[in-house]
Amino acid sequence: MTDMMRALISGRGPQWTVDDVPVPQPRRGQVLIRNYASATNSADLPMLDEADPCNGGSGEESIAGFEYAGEIAAVGEDGGSWQVGDPVMGTFPSAFAEYIVADHRFVLSRPETLDPDVACTLPTALLTEYGALTVAGFEPGQSVLSTGASTGIGMIGVQIAKALGASQVIATTRSADKRELLAALGADTVIVTGEEDLTQAVLTATGDKGAEVVLDHVAGDTFAQCLPATAIDGHVVNIGRLAGPASTINIDSLSYRHLTVSGVSFGFSRDWETVPILEGLRAKVLPAVGRGEIRPVIDSAFDIADIQQATERLRSGKAIGKVVLSFA
To answer: How much is the pTM?
Structure first.
């Protein structure tokens, strides 16, 4: 192992810069991971722009990214049961680099059936979607509505709900051309919100009962439309805010249906919340990943030497699924 590594640095302009930086060393409770591939997430571009000094950003330099897949390269003191060479994947800050240090509790085993360029696209979505279902108290046999289901994490959420025994999975999308994709991923009903009223379509699909669990990736007006589409005593979990953070709701829909509403954001500073979610994910979801029941949709892959093309693809808004960056 060398003393220097390649990494993608933000804070120098409108795109990430490839640079050589020192390989980090694992401290107590950490492991060092040789990263072979990383995946981009919806937060990556906003964070890049916020640090861009050419556009009024902070100019604060840092290694970008969160998702990775590779193998254990070294284990720090009290670094858990990990062994050098173990195939792993996960989500942790500063992941756009050849080597990553991470809290050993946040690292997931990488199924041997998954190459790094596939595995790296899964951890954030697995954590977020399984975590949201857990917060909602999801049980097998319940119905699940996922709004904005054609997003990267939304597509994984549809598959997790199906793999965990949802009786019915309803998915929404703005694009009619995503209907077949979502159906192939396990959605029993696909609602194209540009063509159908969300509330009425969900009630029709559920025999006027409504969905028992709602995973909302959109917010805005969509969040308000979800409330009367949720079953009595149901649970609505907001995950994303693609349509903006503000929503005007009808309180009657909330109160008379006895709904529970939660918001989730599984951060690294809230280990007391995130670690139990990861433990449940390892037991209940990773076996389904290994069997191929949960699989990512990958838009494109780029070597980090081609980071400009990767950034252009992300900014185009045309990517369907994940954009992968190779550090092999």
So the answer is: 0.94
